[in-house]
Amino acid sequence: MIYLDNGATSWPKPESVVEAVEKALRAPASPGRSGHKAAHAASRSVHRARKGIAKIFGVKDPERVAFTPNVTWAVNAALWGLGLKEGDHVLSGALEHNSTARPLRRLERGRGAAWERVDPGPDGILDPEEFRRRLRPETRLVVINHASNVTGALAPAREIKEAAGEVPILVDTAQTAGSVPLDDMGQWADFICFTGHKGLLGPTGTGGLCVKEGARFSPLAVGGSGSRSESLEHPDFLPDALEAGTHNTHGLAGLAAAAEFLLETGIDRIREHELALAELFMAGALQASGLRILGPQPGDRRRVATVSVTLEGYSSSDLARILEEGYGIMTRAGLHCAPLTHQACGSFPGGSVRFSFGYFNTFQEAEAAAGALREIAAKPRAAGLS
Amino acid sequence: MTGASGEIILVFPSNTRILEAEDLLEEMGLPFILVPVPKEVNPNCGLAISFLEDDRDLVLAPLREAGLRPQAAYLRKGDLFAGYDLNWNEASGGTGSSDAALD
Ligand SMILES: Cc1ncc(COP(=O)(O)O)c(C=O)c1O
User: Fold this and answer.
1) Where are the domains positioned within chain B?
2) What is the CATH T-level fold of the domain A15-265, as seen in this structure?
3) What phi, psi does A275 have (nearest 5°)?
4) Which of 3.40.50.720, 3.40.640.10, 3.90.1150.10, 3.20.20.70 is the CATH number of A2-9+267-384?
5) Over the stretch A236-283, which tens digit does the pLDDT of each residue have?
6) Which helix (H) or strand (E) holds A366?
7) Is A216 close to B101, i.e. CB distance below 8 A?
8) Does the pLDDT of residue A382 top 80, yes or no?
9) Segments making up each domain of chain A, as ranges
10) Are B101 and A230 in contact (CB < 8 Å)?
11) What is the mean pLDDT of residues B59-73?
């Protein structure tokens, strides 16, 4: 089996992550709730995850990292917490995943906030100048998917923030965290949303939100926090304000180990390996006749190792099925929860087949995937499958 | 720990703060232990940092430096608790700046 669906969730996980989760599952765990040693060990484990994540994003103060079940929840916490309403304007890229697009759509329909999308250029990349031009006095937020989960295109998020000036920016790092060095992001991004189970190499059910100083918003959910138990008011300090209910202690133990793995390995090294895999794959795949790569083309470093292709004569679902049944290659077909992106790329509604490489993939696997595409393209297409 | 010199107990505003304080003091090899927040004087759940009054300057200096300000401090002698004035210097910087960010 060749696993090329790291954009959906990374596999395998480092052995240290598996061990950390197992160890946590074998221990009593209620972080921050009781005074005994076991509870404290659980708290420390959550705190290790907080420190690791803070380091990865260059967030000086680990208190400003709040954990949520995934990036979707983090995005919702920020978007709803900001209290956007009629008269407010939100700018986003057109390469958004549904995890930001649907909450924005709901804000638009339910609260009357205006949502405007900026299309990428012909190279598949967003232009910061376009954001500058579309800013309005009532623009309250800029939302950016840091790398497209369809085309792999990297957004120039920092330049977009510079163009946006005082307007806060929310960055969805689902496809970049752990795969692209982000250790300056804490200095300029107002809301960094992340998910633990993709490039961060942690377990599912982990994610969160790094909040820059000065951001004001109200929590989506309130409840037990282990702090200020005497009060019926939910704490207003971070991270407790955004962490109602018992943490995913088991998952976060894994995320702590994953963050340590990434920092020890070096995210710059991971990036180079993943990019090299993508380049090798693209070069080989483009030799297949009728094959098109969406978004940034070979040689363009403004991407992550997620590559979407279409092959003439094949629907995305058929192609993915042939890849799996004939070659044992796991990809993802369709729209990838990103109809807007496919619209922007002219691949809607048919979608594409996405090959997403991870740190543990090998050059042989990238070659094999490209070779499979060449072979499929060269075969005369019979009616139906196989 | 409750000898003649007395025990100082620091309660922090959040669990994360106490973990930060613990990491810091541990890194510096300073003499302290974690104890449950004494319910006699404080309703918070969780843990507090405890050390001998004699070690007060040693332990407080790095916390001050890092801006890790306790929410409350107590002096314990046997079963008796009294509020304890830390003379915290407001001008101290560092981390722990996580003010009320939320409405
Ligand atoms: C760009 C992007 N944003 C958000 C998500 C949602 O992640 P999660 O399901 O972990 O919340 C994904 C992946 O599914 C993604 O690729």
Assistant:
1) 7-98
2) Aspartate Aminotransferase; domain 2 (3.40.640)
3) -65, -40
4) 3.90.1150.10
5) 889 999 999 999 999 999 999 999 999 999 999 999 999 999 999 999
6) helix A363-378
7) yes
8) no
9) 2-9+267-384, 15-265
10) no
11) 95
Contacts of B23 in chain A (CB under 8 A): 47
Nearest to B16 among A34, A63, A228 (CB): A63
Q: Around Cβ A162, how many Cβ atoms within 10 Å?
A: 14
pLDDT tens profile A334-360? 888 888 888 888 889 989 999 999 999
Q: For ligand 1, what atom is nearest to the CA of residue A146?
A: 1
Q: What is the ipTM of this complex?
A: 0.76
Burial A321-360 (b: 16+ CB within 10 A, else e): bbbeeebebbbbbbbbbbbbbbebbebeeebbbbbbbbbe
Angle at A360 between CA A357 and CA A365, to 5 degrees: 60
Q: What is the pairing mode between strands A291-293 and A207-211?
A: unpaired
Q: How far is the CA of A272 from the centre of ligand 1 (A)?
A: 23
C-beta A172 within 6 A of ligand 1: yes
Nearest CA in chain A to B42: A230
pTM over 0.95: no
Range of weakest confidence among A71-85, A143-157, B34-48:
B34-48
Per residue in A212-248, pLDDT (tens digit) is 998 877 898 998 887 777 888 898 889 999 999 999 9
Interface A:B, Cβ pairs < 8 A: 98
**Which residue of chain B comes nearest to A226, CA vs CA?**
B45
Closest residue of B to A238, CA-based?
Answer: B98
Please indicate whether the domains covering A2-9+267-384 and A15-265 agree at the CATH topology level. no
CB spacing of A62 vs B35 below 8 angstroms:
no
Which chain B residues have a beta carbon less than 8 Å from that of A235?
Answer: 14
